[in-house]
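Forwarding these from the shared drive since the link keeps breaking.
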Amino acid sequence: MAIEGSVVGAAERLGVTSATVSEQVRTLERTLGRTLFDRLQTGLQLTEAGRMTFEHTMPMFRLGERLVTLVGKRQDADRLLRVGVCGPTARSSTTELVIPLFELQDLRPMIRNGETAELTRELRAGNLDLVLIESHPSESMLRGLEVVLIHQMQFIAIAPPDIEPRDDWADVRMVQYSAATSYRHAIESFLEQASLRPSIVGEADDPHVHVEAAARGGCIAIVPRPAALDALLSGRVRIVREIEDVHLAIHALFRENAPARQAVRALIVAATATSKGE
């Protein structure tokens, strides 16, 4: 009902009668001693108690659907490979690594994006097999899970073809990453050690924003090499400087099972090929 917005819609989704749905909701409301839905002319709306109940019961419904998938309707469900990708930088920089997963025999990848904490919870709950993250996980995050370093992507500084910055970059603008990213400090250290003083005009975590700031906005951008590949090949930007001391470390966090192990091996092979291509 919370998802469909009506008793009829919920009944059709569940394959039962409207009366059955209504009675089950009334029973739950009596058990909790709280009203879960406001009955409005436009449909049903969750009350505060209803929202809390919905948030706490959704994981159970997801696990139930997963159980049906695994042992019920689909014969090949145990060959699903459920992958989570964390962080805007990881999402924009792991395409070359992730695409080979679709070539694995007998595995059907299902890839989703999300925040690290959310996807790690899903991994622990058994709703994901593998999570790609852009920094080494903490000890608390690692409990009961395996971790493998997949790839270290080099950062490069790019600029439009018609811009030739001064040696100290004081004549160019740059978009910085936020302090929440794992490499903000490394980039600041690089700029300081190289005595570079670009004018910082803002912050963005997505490297594609940085690439477009360079290609369209005349800025210098420091990005993982894969994120700038298309813009480099099309000639919209050029490499101003290779940055040896700043890398994006992609780690695979996973539960021990055959699909995850097979995926990790494929990711490492893809990362090796990407490194040779660089």
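-- next protein --
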Amino acid sequence: MNITVRQLELFISLMRNPHIGKVAEEHYLTQSAVSMSIKALEDAVGEQLFDRISNRLVPNESGRLLLNRVRPALEQLQEVETIFRQDRMAGVLTVAASSTIADYIMPQVLFDFRTRYPEVQVEMLSRNSEEVIAGIESGSVALGFIEGDYECRVADFRELCTEELVVVSSDKHFASEREYTIEELLGLKWVLREPGSGTRQTMWEHLGPAKKRLNVFLELEHIESIKMVLKNPDTVSCMSPFCFQRELANGELFPVQVQGVRFTRRFYAVTHRQKYKSALLLAFGNHVRQHLETTWPWILRNTH
């Protein structure tokens, strides 16, 4: 068997993005060179790794099995290049984060990390928390960031910090008039994230039996869509303070004080227990934590 590192690199790229043309551009090769390399790999392992359907490559069961076996080994091999040069960092890291983290925290993190380590490529996926956990379980995601507590037997959870969700309204008079009981708010038009999101789960955990009487008027997948709908009368939502800082400063959204209910939740970094923890993965995880601690201390209660 004669398998090369280049063949494995191209194979992993195709499993991630099964388009020969795009993979060829990524690796500065011709399409025929990529095709020949994958065919040689299939000949070497004695199995077809992709199904050819309507001129498309579709990863099959053998391909997924090989991916789970070779990706950790290739990551370790790539790290050899930097083991004696600790001031350098290189490689590709697939990261998935739940929507609040992906949209409001990660952009600056990615910019700062790429500025510091220009040879690093971070592939950023925005998912809800359940989908992030699914990616960790399947091995398609190297490092995940989620909001709220989830159970997963194959995952390690590293607590990053704690935040408190806020009920918000575009009605300044209503929001500032007084403190409300949750019972007084149940009948308003609630505009919420979809089931499976960390924000929705946190609300449900803290509302208890009252959630059955909550008037869920709309369910939307994106916080920006929710904020647009909140311009309508009698609408409220519950979201992370990360999400409405601009609107708060501009006088467009206002926090509603709620008696006796605190929608607290934890942020976690998540990895598969069997995954090799490369220097790149550890460095990125630490960078995210440092960013939270130094940039948002007035929002977060950090845990150590």
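The mean pLDDT is 89. Residues 128 and 197 are 5 Å apart (CA to CA).

- D.
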